[in-house]
Amino acid sequence: MPVPDSPDHLSSIHNSQFAIRNWQSAIFLLICILGLWLRVWQLDLRPMHHDEANQAVRTGILLETGVYRYDPADHHGPSLYYLSLPFVWASGGRSFASTTEVTLRLVPALFGVALIPMLLALRRGLSGVALAVAAVLTAISPAMVFFSRFYIQEMLLVFFTFGALACGWLYFLRRSASRAAACGLFLGLMFATKETSVLAYTAMGAGLLALLLSDRRQAMNWLSTLRCQHVGWLVFSALAVPVVLFSSFFTHPAGLVDMFRSFAIYFFRGLGDSLHLHPWYFYLKPLLYQYEGRGPHWSEAVILALALIAIVVAWLRPNPAAGNTRLVRFLAVYAVVLTVLYSVISHKTPWCLTSFHHGLIILAGFGAVAAVDLARRGWIRALIGILLAAGFSHLAWLSAQANFRYFADPVNPYVYAHTNLDFLNLVKRVEQVARVAPEGRGLLIEVVADPYSMWPLPWYLRRFPKVGYWEDPAQVPKGHVPGIVITTPELQPQLSAGLDTDFQGEFYGLRPSVLMLIYIRRDLWERVLESQSGKR
Amino acid sequence: MMNRTLRYLFMAVAALALSVMVYAQTPGKVKLELQLPKPRFIGTPKNLKTPNLEPARTGPKPAFMVPAGTKNLAASKPVTASDNEPVIGEIEQITDGDKEGVEGSYVEFGPGTQWVQIDLQKPSTIYALAIWHFHNEARVYRDVVIQVSDDADFTTGVKTVFNNDHDNSSGLGVGKDLEYIETFEGRIFDGKGMKGRYVRLYSKGNTANEMNHMTEVEVYGKVG
Question: DSSP of A254-313, one letter per residue?
């Protein structure tokens, strides 16, 4: 038996750790491939959501003009747009018209996948099995997969938040300026991604406070040896990122003022000045159980149950073999506080749940190991293993259902104000008319609709150079006969009476209970019919 | 000869020069380029899941006049369909009098052009038809075609009451009637006193999904 600290002993530890790392690496690689497949397969399957189209057009403006202007009222921080540029350039896109759904959605998809290998940053805090379980759950969670395939800021926020947590943990293990700066960088990127990052900061603060209160003496010792230089690096990098990005690389100082104005706007929205007021259980319902009368019975309760076990074990019966007690306690407080914060704020949209759900998923990894360890008999452990395998299989099946079958169906709890599949038929009709029009895609298209009904048209009509968007029918200039008019049933009566006689009208579904009308100029419509009869 | 050629040449050059001068004096014309407004960026729209039980029309529903003694001839009459095993419900529900916009009241058929047919059991004069496809939300059904015939196979003596298949995608001929939004009030079609024993109603998907639905059909008329 090797003597402690002898070369033989250190060598055996090194070999053992190396063997575990190889084993973990192989498992993680497989899990990453699974997560990647679920996130990038058929990325263009789902029609672009209103919000995705808004973000895409903003990216297009940055791509074509190099200009970004922060909007404190909506659309969140600039990181998504700047980080999209390399993806667009790599795909050969030089103009907004040449971008595709796949190019843009790859951005959140790859950040969603990157959450899996990033778990390895916690390998000295959680056991290999706990990390593997957390990796599997990250890869297959229906919510995590669904919103990784969604071109909005959410998955970037989750990634940067986890980056800050991981770097904080690494700094706790070994203090260095680079680790402090990296932690600050991620904290800054969080705010440059979405204003709701302040909720995550609060939850992180609560986690640290809980650790301080639970072991005050050790915490004070640790804090007393903290180096000011490291704190300086952390603060500097945390501030530098938002300053650079919100000011559009120092070309738009007003962006910094808007950055602070956004606090007031989002504060009042959180209090209720919003179209999206929902009860406190809005996020927890689909995670626990939701059924809409048809389709699957949605639930990620296995994750919640394992996270609950982790929270109880961390505070009442620590299990150092499954994970570092301080880390798990911190994660427990962080995830619970973040869940409560998101739940009490009345403004809710389903993608926001990913922020706290990811914390619960990491805890669930620890919880799975702790649950098996709690069982004293072999057959109970085997039973728990079988139940977990069944639960994970169900999650994977639900993920496939959510993303490849019910991807735009309102029975899917993560489908929210989403564009109907029928809307793609409207886009097809516009393309069909352009094919027979003498001007081709250069035909004049008038879109007369309220702003909520305009989107995602600007995305789908990005290759049409002559499209005008009016919210007030009285503002539409007279004297020009458009090839196509797109409007809503509400505004149609205010448009020219000639629409009914000189144009062919058709209805299409935009979103559930929201219809759009397309009017095609009679001569073009006749050509469409001729081209159809020619094909027959 | 030479002089004449020179004279014509001179005249042609003079005419050309004059044309250029006249053109130069005319105010220049350029193609009018419209400055088209851009769309306004706006946040997430409201997630509408509430039933659309409000009529789309403002004001009271206009009265539809029929001869005295007219009654619903379709009540509890036999129904056949292009698919006698619907995805949801039983085809008998189409004439059972239940026209609620809730689960259990409607019959769902698969994608593509589908039809339901009602046997009035006796040749009848039809003055009006009232149809409810599905009215739990605002949606429009496509290729709505209503035909009447004495032939159960609809191969002879077919008369069309309504057809809004404007691009003939169902292959029953181009229809000139307009599409309409489903409401809880149903849609009344003028039967124009057409005579026939069978009524067939087609549709081909809707604005919410590609499925076909039928909640209730009422055929108002008199036997004979």
Answer: HHHHHHHHHHHHHHHHHHT-SS-B--TTTTHHHHH-B--SSS--B--HHHHHHHHHHHHH
The number of beta carbons lying within 10 Å of the beta carbon of residue A324 is: 21
Q: Is B62 inside a domain boundary?
A: no
Within a domain: B5: no
Give the contacts of A290 (CB within 8 A, at least 6 positions apart).
A297, A298, A299, A413
Structure token pair of residue B115:
């039809």
Q: How do strand A445-448 and strand A467-470 relate by DSSP bridges? A: parallel
Cβ contact A473:A495 at 8 Å: yes
Q: Tell me if A388 sits within 8 A of A302, measured CB to CB.
A: yes
Judge: A455–B50 Cβ closer than 8 Å, yes or no: no
Strand A484-487 with A445-448, pairing: parallel
Whether A323 contacts A288, CB under 8 Å: no
Q: Which residues of A touch B179 (CB under 8 A)?
A: 505-507
Residue B27 lies in a domain: no
Residue found under tokens 């003079």: B14
A50 and B45 Cβ atoms separated by less than 8 Å? yes
3-class DSSP state of A411: coil
Q: Cα separation of A289 and A43, whole Å?
A: 27
d(CA A363, CA B179): 54
- Say if CB A368 and CB A306 are below 8 A apart: yes
CATH of the domain at B170: 2.60.120.260
Q: Which residue has the tokens 């619970």?
A: A336
Domain for residue B180, yes or no? yes
Beta strands in chain B (DSSP E): 71-72, 79-81, 107-109, 114-132, 145-149, 159-163, 187-203, 212-214, 216-223
The domain limits of chain A are 7-404, 423-535
DSSP tag of B141:
B
Q: Please enumerate in sequence order all residues whose Cβ is within 8 A of that of B132, keeping only pairs 6 or more positions apart, or say none.
A: B99, B101, B182, B184, B186, B187, B214, B215, B216, B217
A contacts of B174 (beta carbons < 8 Å)? 529
Can you list the positions of beta strands (E) in A97-143? Answer: none
d(CA A263, CA A302): 36
Distance from the A329 Cα atom to the nearest Cα atom in chain B, whole angstroms: 36
Measured in angstroms, the CA of B206 and the nearest CA of chain A are apart by: 8
The Cα of B69 is separated from the nearest Cα of chain A by a number of Å equal to 37
- Report the candidate in A224, A207, A247 with the shortest Cα–Cα distance to residue A69: A247
DSSP class of A126: B
The answer to whether A227 and A47 are in contact (CB under 8 A) is no
Do A180 and A164 touch, CB atoms closer than 8 A? Answer: no
Task: State the best of A348, A448, A491, A507 to mutate against chain B, taking most chain B CBs within 10 Å.
Answer: A507
Spell out which residues of chain B touch residue A452, defining contact as CB-CB under 8 Å. 42, 45-46
Tokens of A180: 């402090």
Structural domains in chain B (count): 1
Backbone angles phi, psi at B92, to 5 degrees: -65, -25
Residuewise pLDDT in 10s, chain B (224 residues): 556 776 777 777 777 766 655 555 555 666 555 566 677 677 777 665 543 333 345 566 678 888 888 999 999 999 999 998 899 999 999 999 888 888 888 999 999 999 999 999 999 999 999 999 998 887 889 999 999 999 999 999 999 999 999 889 999 999 988 888 888 888 899 999 999 999 999 999 998 888 999 999 999 999 98
* B47–A480 CB contact, under 8 Å: no
Q: Which residues of A touch B37 (CB under 8 A)?
A: 468-470, 475
How far is Cα A210 from Cα A255, in angstroms, rounded to an integer?
36
Q: Which two tokens stand for residue A7?
A: 């070369």
Domain that holds residue B99: 71-223
